[in-house]
Every structure is written in structure tokens, then in C-alpha cells.
Amino acid sequence: MPGTEGSRDVSAQQTIHVAGEWLSAASGATREIIDPADAKPFAVIAEGGTDDADAAIAAARRAFDEGPWPGTPVAERAALLRRVADLLVRDREKIGLLESRDAGKTVEEGRVDVDCVADAFRYFADLVIGEGAGRVVDAGSDDIHSVVVHEPIGVCTMITPWNYPLLQASWKIAPALAAGNTFVIKPSEITPLTTVALIELLVEAGLPEGVANIVTGPGHTVGARLADHPGVDLVSFTGGLVSGTKVAQAAALGVKKVALELGGKNPNVVFADACATDEGFDTAVDQALNAAFIHSGQVCSAGGRLIVEESVRERFVAELVRRAERIRLGRGTEDGVECGPLVSEEQREKTEGYVASALAEGAVLRCGGKRPEPTDARPATGYFYEPTVLDQCHRGMRVVREEVFGPVLTVETFRTEDEAVALANDTEYGLAGAVWTADSGRGRRMARRLRHGTVWINDFHPYLPQAEWGGFGKSGVGRELGPAGLAEYREAKHIYQNLAPQPVRWFAG
After folding, report:
1. What confidence tens digit (pLDDT) does each residue in 107-148 have?
2. What is the rounded radius of gyration, in angstroms, for the C-alpha atoms of the chain?
3. CATH of residue 174
4. Based on the structure, what is the number of domains in the chain?
5. Which of 23, 127, 466, 493 has the fewest CB atoms inside 10 Å of its own CB, making it the most exposed?
6. Do strands 267-270 and 257-261 pair parallel, antiparallel, or not at all (unpaired)?
7. pTM of the model
8. Which residue of the set 99, 109, 189, 261 is catalytic?
9. In what order do the strands lie in the sheet with 144-152?
């Protein structure tokens, strides 16, 4: 395994797994994986292409059509998922460190990701084992036995993003396997290593050959082929809106099922009554920092839009800025570091572009807005960017409308509850949002009115594997996690049995 102590005796370039074998790319191409903290390569992976994708899909097709996994009893499938969860716990430190180096996040964030992945595998194991044999449908006659059952959809292809590579892989793999499917996954070409590690654990847990396949490679070749291949039954994609639209268009030509999670532009609405006490004020400010700057803002549900009641705006923003300026940036593996680098130079330049456009459109820079001075924990070559607060923003600005995926917080203000709702819903996206208020009735009213897939009241960022995750509008199609997350990987079948068949006599004969 690249970047770890490894459990298999292969070269670092063999990161493609097809039909039970670890392989190099058919073309022999490789890619260096860069540590975003110092911009230096620390691993080498196979750079797969369309031939590799075709081979992986063929293996998954054979495993579904001819192999044992779709017909494996639910109890055995659930037991395998639990074994994977146990292996994740065993390898928590190793995989957490790998996630830190690969994606730039802190080691503690990496460890938390591993814990969440283990929870997801356990949840879907419990969910399928707790189901009955189907939903009995009353046909109005004792002579008719009618039942609706759920069967695996078939071969699933999965395309995952660079910000939470391990977590996003698990949200797809765990329900797909629980339902009895086979799959091919393509992780982001810049953060693939923990997904490779997860496939290793599936193999170790005893998953039959061909059920789990991975092709490391770029989106424009491997990802495109996973979306348009005629042997695929479902495409699940998490990533940006532009790429997701292309995936949906390609899948539509084959009338494949498609699941899309395409990010968000998420409001964090703070009412003055939430700040009426010192404790309430401290909590709301602390959570606003957490909402915007965890993992350097590279989170699909990041609360990058602070919408604060006008009467407390100046006090709130001043304290927010004071704390943001003290966030400790550095290599995620260093003790005391609170925030790591952006994932790539391209992402940092994109963030800089958004800040520049905001300032040109009239935003006021309260802190950040530049690359930090280098230190031992923060090499000059790393892709670091200071946590940035932009005040006096409005809906017409690009930085307010579009997903930045960087440590940038914009500040808007409101005076009434209706105005707060209007601002929070004034987005093409609808993934998540939060409301801070001491009035529980107002909190519930706001939650009902906000057009977002997840609404937090007096909190930000937690999710539960048993609760659906997904968004309204351009945030995507379908849901992950929860019962609906399992349903994405199933087909419903109605079985109607006549226990006492008789002639119909429709035709005279």
C-alpha cells in the first residue's frame, strides 16, 4: 500500500484492483501523489485508462451475473461489513495518517474519518439484517400472495471527490455491498490512497473476487467511461456541478440510474437572541469558525455564508476575526496544528481568484486574504492560505453565489426572520444550512422554511449514518446514508402469486 507499511508484496504502482488481482495500468502509466503540505511527491500510483475501466466493469459484471455475492444470505453480507468495520478500527492510526498526508487535513480529522467510515459499515450491516422478507401487499383475496421485494441493482460505478476520499467511498460502498451489488470505484486522482487501503480491507475481510474493483486514474478518461459504459446499471458521483452534469448526461444515454451529490453554498444564520448570553455568543462564534474553516473550508457542507442579524453583526464579526487570525496553520501531522493546506496549487489559485473578485465587487477584507508566512510546520512550498473573512457581502457577488472550497467566509446581514429565510434560500444549491437562536419555535419554523437537505438548529456539521444526506436544487439527485441510501442501490420487484388459478374467459375461444 503506497505510503503505509503495506500488507501486500507488490510495487507501489499496482493500485488497480480487477477480478481479485492488483495490477499496474494497462498502459504502464503512473502518477505521483503530492503531499499538499510541502508539494513533494510521497507515493506513486497506477494511472489507469479506459482499457482498465473496461476490464474492471467486465469483472464486476461477471461477479454479479455469475458469482455468489448477489445471492449471499443477508446475514453473511452483514457479517462481512462488520468485519470491515473491525479492520478499520485496527488500522485507524495508519489510515488516519495516510488520509492526512494525502488530503492535507489534520491527523485527528483523518482519525475521525476512519471512525465515521466504520460506523457507516456497521449501520448498513444492521439495517439489512433487520429487514423482513419483503412487504406483503393485500390483494383482496386469500388466493393471492403478493409481496414487494428489493433486489440488488447490478453493477455500480462510483466516482468520489478529493476532499473526503475515504468517507465518500464508504457512503457508496457500504450500502452497495449490503444490497448485494458489485462495483467499480474511481477515487480522485489526487487523493486515492485511502480508497486503495479500503479495497485492501474488503479483500482481507473475504469479499469474493470481482465484487470490489478499483481503477485509479483521471476523471476525463476513467470517470467518463464508468459513466457511459453499457455494462453499468448505476452511476454514483460526488463532486462538482460541472462534472456531475456531464456524468448525468452520459448516464442518461444508457438510461442508467444515477445518484449525484454536487456540493452546496450553505448558509449559517445567526439571530441576535443566540448571542444574548456570554455562553451563547461564545458558542455561536466558535461554531461559525468550525462551519467555515474545518479542513480549510474544503467541505461540501461548509458554512461559508454567515448571515447574521444586523444588531449583533459588528460584535460578532469582530470576535470571529480575532479568533480566525489565531488559527494555527501547518502540516496536518504536526502537533498543535488546527488547519492544514489546500489540496493543490490549483485549488489555492481558485480561492485567491474568488477573494480578488469579491474585493473588486466591494467586499471588505477583515482578515486573511493571502498566503501565510512560512514556518517549520508550514513550508513555503505548501499550499497554505489564511482563513479569510469578507464583510459587507451581498448576493450579487461570485464569492457568495459559487462554491469556493477554500477557507473563505462571507458575511451578510438581515433584520427580520423573513429576510433571513430569503437570503438563506437565495441559492441554486440546497445541501445544508444552520440556524442559531434561543427561540426553539423560531428554530423549528426556520428549519421548515429552509430549502436545504440538512438543517441544523444550534449546531453545524454533524451527520448520522442513519439519517439521509443530500440536497435540493443543484446540490444533486438522490440521497446517501439512511434507508434511502440503501434504496439507491436496489430495485423494487413485485411478486404476485395466484394460489388458485382459474380461466379468465376474456375471449370466447
Report:
1. 999 999 999 999 999 999 999 999 988 999 999 999 999 999
2. 24
3. 3.40.605.10
4. 2
5. 493
6. unpaired
7. 0.95
8. 261
9. 135-136, 144-152, 490-498
